[in-house]
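Good morning C.,

I know you're traveling, so I'll keep this short. The sequence:
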Amino acid sequence: MKKVARILGLVIINLNAAVYLLDIGRSIFDGYTLPCCLETIGMAVLYGLTIISVIISWFRRQLGVWIVLVVGILFAIFALITGARGVYVMADGGPLIIGSLLILLGLESKKA
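The tokens, ready to paste straight into the viewer:
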């Protein structure tokens, strides 16, 4: 059961990071220029942190998953601060929080 939770969590956070990467790539190739507002900069930073933390979780699972959890919480806080697009940002942060918690539940404890 722990293995199922770990695999499901990995699938969730990897799909989330893949969507962010596709969104960034689409923006670059479509020639979309970002407006220089605080909300756009915050979203770009959070997207980048998510992608980096998922890559870290491939090699150092426990460290990477904790970073993914922190980024998910930062997405939730960012949703509360920005207000108008809060539901969209929470939809980004929710899967990160759920996926990282599933992975943490599925990790083997080293006490045995």
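Safe travels,
E.
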